[in-house]
Every structure is written in C-alpha cells, then in structure tokens.
Amino acid sequence: MYSNILVPVSFDEGRDVSGAIEVAQALAADGAKITLLHVMEHIPAYAISYMPREYLLESRKAIDKELADMVEDIPGGASEVIEGHAGRTILDWAGEHDVDCIVIASHRPGMQDLLLGSTASMVVRHAACAVHVIR
Questions:
Q1: Which of 40, 48, 69, 79 has the maximal Cβ count within 10 Å?
Q2: Residues 6 or more apart from 60 whose CB is under 8 A from it?
Q3: What's the rounded Cα separation, in Å, for the pair 89 and 48?
Q4: What is the pLDDT of residues 50-93, one digit of tens each?
C-alpha cells in the first residue's frame, strides 16, 4: 500500500480519470494522501499575444474548480494546478513531494507512441517511484 499517491489529470478529449482515481484509492494505505495534479502547458509567446488576457486566468479558474470537485469525495484528497511541460513537471513534482506511487491514465496511442502516450511513457521511464498505468 502507498502513502502518497499522485494522479496526473488531463482534460484532453476522451480522457477519463475516474479509473485512475479508483486504482489510486485501492492502492492507498489508511491515511494516505492522494493528489490530483493538472499541468497547464506553456503557451508560446507568439501565440499568447493573440489570446485575450483573461483567457488564461479563466482557464485556470475552471481547471481549479473541476479538480476541486473531483477531489471532494476522495479521502485524503488534494488538488493542484501547475505550469510546465507535462511529463517533466509531473516527475519533478513527484520528486519534490515524496510521492511513492503515480497512477497515470494513458490514451489509446497510435504507432508513433509505441504502446504508451508520450507523457505516460516519459513518467514510466523516469519516475523514481512505482508507476501504475491505466488504460
């Protein structure tokens, strides 16, 4: 059983995080912390100049609310939204917060991903803790 579990959450179309949350809860020891983490990818400077200023603020608020709603029914649950490159940021956050297990959902990839999505693949290859991949 694990005491500090990280569940990265993607809001891409076709992603269902409920399976990852269920697995995280099944793997959690009594009193475990389960953190839902969403990484907002950086928007290139050339593109951000074409976006309304409040767009990023409103997007972040909506994501914060969605994660807060998701974590309400998870004992020991927490949520966090951070910025960065998804794979690298998940790994860094896990290392900085002493995560002992990452439960990550992976989409049904095409041949270019060779069995795992690119973010899940990076996490599996480089995590310093246990990783459970959910499809």
A1: 79
A2: 40, 81
A3: 21
A4: 888 788 889 999 999 999 999 999 999 999 999 999 999 999 99
Nearest CA among 40, 41, 39, 37 for reference residue 7: 37
**92-131 pLDDT, tens per residue?**
999 999 999 999 988 655 544 444 568 888 999 999 999 9
Mean pLDDT (the chain) is 89
For the CA atoms of 83, 103, 72, 64, what is the dihedral angle to 10 degrees? 10
Contact at 8 Å (CB) between 123 and 10?
no
Task: Give phi and psi for 84, each to the nearest 5.
Answer: 150, -170
In which element (H, E) is residue 101 found? strand 101-105
Structure pTM? 0.89
